Structure formats: C-alpha cells, structure tokens
What we know:
The protein is an alpha/beta fold and about 280 residues long. The protein has helices at about 5-10, 25-35, 55-60, 75-80, 100-105, 120-130, 145-150, 160-170, 210-220, 225-235, 240-250, 260-275; strands at about 20-25, 45, 65-70, 90, 110-115, 135-145, 170-180, 185, 190-200.
Amino acid sequence: MKLGELLKKHDFKFSKKYGQNFLSDSNLLESIVIKSGVDKTTPVLEIGCGAGTLTKVLCERAKYVYGYEIDKTLAPVLGENLAGIENCDITFKDIMREKTHETENRIGEPYMLVANLPYYITTPIIMKFIEESKLCKGIVIMVQEEVADRICAKAGTSEYGAITAGINVVADSERILSVSRKMFYPAPNVDSAVVKITFNRNKFEGVDRILYRETVRNAFLSRRKTLANNLREWLKIDKASIENLLTECEIDLLARGETLCEADFVKLSNVIKQKGYKE
C-alpha cells in the first residue's frame, strides 16, 4: 500500500506542531540504511519513526530497532506498516524528555542512532547525544541542507559555528546524501541532506567537556566581535590577561571564534581552567 493511501486509511492528519514530512522513496530509504553501516550485529535507535517507512528498511538490516515517536496518532499506521516484524519496538514518547543513560541501559550495547526529524529539533537531538551518550557509535540524521553545511563545515568558513565545534571534539562528520524536497510527503519548502556523525571519543584526552562547551558557546556569542572581546565579557578579566591567555594558546589576538578548530578550543578551555578563570 502506498504511503498516502495508508495515511488516508487511518485518517491521519499531519501536525504543524510536529513539522511532519515523511520519506517514501524506497531507493532513498535503502541508500540511507546502507550508508549508515547498519548490519545484523547493530542495534538501532530510531527517533521520529513517522509512518515507519525508514523503520521497515532498518529492520531488514539491523539487529533490532528501538523506535521513538512523539505522535501517538501514528500508532495504527505504524501497527499496520510494521505488522509481522519482530525485531522492532516503538515507544510513543518524546526522546528529549527521556534520560539518555536509561535509554542506553535499555539497548544495552553500542548502537547507531538514525533520525528523520522536524528541522526545529535536529540540533537539540544531536547535541543531547553528543554530550550525554556513552554507547552511541554514530548518528545518521536527515537535516535541512544549510544545517548539514554547518555540521560539516571547516574552521574559517562562514558556515562554521558552535555546533560544528561542539560535535568535532568527540566525533567526525560527513555529508552522505543530498535529498530533494520532492522526496518527502508532504514536500517541505527546502532541500535536505543526510549527515553521518561517527563518534571518536578518544580524539582528545582529558577534556573538561562542560568547560569546553562553555568556551565554544561564548566564543561565538557575538560573531561580530573578536574572540578576545567575547572572552573578556565571559571571563570578566582585564585586556592584558586576555592577551596573555590567547598568546599562551598561540591564537592571534584579532582572531574570531570561527577561525578556531576544535584543537584550538580544547587548548583554550584547558588553559582557562589551569589559570583558574573558570572551574
């Protein structure tokens, strides 16, 4: 049964609140799963199951799919679309309200996260698992095209920002697919891309993650200002101390946040801690 027919059969109404756009192209769904690297040894956490089109393909290749869907009105649609599939369990809850360690205790082993989400929630979902996950091996997520550009940006480019540096300290990102708006039902107003984020938690040793995150956030607090000025406002120290801090970190005194790579931010946050400016 075609997706539109299935939704109509169950009198499903799209919700503006949830920003729902479902994938139906079988070739695209297959490509997403193949490029994710999921196989029969891999459990999958799928966030935003929708009508279950991606869920179904994931179940064919994955060890088990733990699905989360916020819209309970999709229960009959998912029930029919996933009928007879035994390696899947759908929970109708908001994943943002769930404790990550409890979700991971339920899965019990390293897993992949796969998500096709409304664009307004993609960044919070990504950062939740970047900052809190212990078992996630990687994230494969559908995002708005410009968000994909930001996630995969290089330091020194206009797209590079806090989310890039936040991800790069523990993971590596790549754009694996471009997706036309025409491949969604209903079609959104923008094109999309699929990004794969692969965890590399040993990328940097001894990083204070909380201070790193604060350092990055404040470095980008005002993109019009230099890094020195942003840091002065945050750390509440004098100009000479800021200049000494940047010099010790081998950072140009006129640099802006977007010119620093993750290694620069690691060094900067470490020295800030060593000097006792922040704990």
